Amino acid sequence: MTLEKSIYDLSQEELKSFLVKNNISPDFSTTIFRNLYKNNKHEMPISKKIMAILRKNFNVDLPVIHTVSKSPDGTVKFLMMFSDNKSVETVLIPFNKRFTVCLSSQVGCAMKCSFCYTGTMGLSRHLKSGEIIGQYIVAANYLDVELGLKTMAPNIVFMGQGEPLHNSDEVLKAIQIFMEPFGLAMGPRQMTLSTAGYLPGIKKLNDFPKINIALSLHSPFNSIRKELIPINQHFPLEDIFKELDGLDLMKRQFIVYEYLLIDGLNDRVEDADELLKLLGERKSAINLIPFNPFPGSNYKRPSDEKVEAFKEMLVERKLRTMIRTTKGSDILAACGQLKS
Ligand code: SAH
């Protein structure tokens, strides 16, 4: 098993210090970044000599695509494999002429949410920042080369396998590298991080660039939420909201509350009433996600009519609400269906 440092783990500053230590001008870091991240196709190639030094010191490989599944709705799911043969799923989701890429942050997940397929695997290991970035590059290249879709660079959601805030140092590092001006030069608002409510990580969010934040809420009642998301026993809603209320949001920034809808469990009038109490005064947007079944799951997806009716209840209560249309469920690529 080789898990040596990847070149994609490096910020440009770190690359500069490496170059200086090796008696190479730090100015080459820009050329190297542009080549690695293909920010400028006409960039001078990296010289053979420098490339050899980089290869000697770093793993320069990207994750390998093991399998690709395509849904007629345009969703593409990859099983990507790393150098230790562990794999994660990465999903490209079409959205308004543009794609969003759903990145994994861990192999498996430790959260064991009762409605999630990934949770049944348990946690195998955290991903390094370079492995998170590698998924993006491979997926974006696939769009460009395989599908010939020269669309704008995909936006990012950290909603694949894993709990991103349970691996917050590497996820933060990846976000910072995604923003490198000579790399992918992404803006923080092009990235959304979704958390199950992992409090130690939420406490660190003020140190992150101003990315979009989503909380998997799923119920306004601790009694129900802890059945769905076991870590709610340790990190109940009061504590989570105390932290979220302390985040300095941008002017028009909302926190997105993901709300998994399970038939008969959390789609009742009292749920809507309690959601109003919880979110009415907060800068919030609710994203309803009808439960996506997977092999062996016990919960039931509500009918489209019921989903629509619950949305209406929230809209009547003046809560900003959207239904997240399910994409890729025929290839088990939808929310909560990822398992490698
Ligand atoms: N660990 C993070 C991100 C991964 S899951 C989190 O919990 O937020 C991304 C979203 O998919 C979460 O809102 C999660 O609750 C939801 N999800 C998980 N399993 C699902 C399922 N079977 N059907 C619908 N949504 C699901």
What can you see in these coordinates?
This protein has helices at residues 12-21, 28-37, 48-57, 129-146, 168-178, 199-202, 222-228, 237-245, 269-279, 304-316; strands at 64-70, 76-81, 87-95, 98-102, 106-108, 123-126, 155-158, 191-195, 212-216, 255-261, 284-290, 321-323. It is an alpha/beta fold and 340 residues long. It has two domains: 7-57, DNA polymerase, domain 1; 64-331, Alpha-Beta Barrel (TIM Barrel), CATH 3.20.20. A hairpin with a 2-residue loop joins strand 3 (87-95) and strand 4 (98-102). Helix 4 packs across helix 5. The chain is globular, with a radius of gyration of 21 Å. It starts with 11 loop residues before the first helix and ends in a 17-residue tail after the last strand. The mean pLDDT is 93. Bound molecules: S-adenosyl-L-homocysteine (SAH). S-adenosyl-L-homocysteine (SAH) binds at residues 115-116, 159, 163, 194-196, 216, 258, 260, 289, 291-292, 335-336.
Could you name the key traits of this structure?
single chain; 340 residues; alpha/beta; DNA polymerase, domain 1; TIM Barrel; 2 domains; 10-stranded mixed beta sheet; two-stranded antiparallel ribbon; 10 helices; binds S-adenosyl-L-homocysteine
Task: Walk me through the topology.
Elements: H1 12-21, H2 28-37, H3 48-57, E1 64-70, E2 76-81, E3 87-95, E4 98-102, E5 106-108, E6 123-126, H4 129-146, E7 155-158, H5 168-178, E8 191-195, H6 199-202, E9 212-216, H7 222-228, H8 237-245, E10 255-261, H9 269-279, E11 284-290, H10 304-316, E12 321-323
Parallel strand pairs: 4-7, 7-8, 8-9, 9-10, 10-11, 11-12
Antiparallel strand pairs: 1-2, 2-3, 3-4, 5-6
Bound molecules: S-adenosyl-L-homocysteine (SAH).
S-adenosyl-L-homocysteine is lined by residues 115-116, 159, 163, 194-196, 216, 258, 260, 289, 291-292, 335-336.
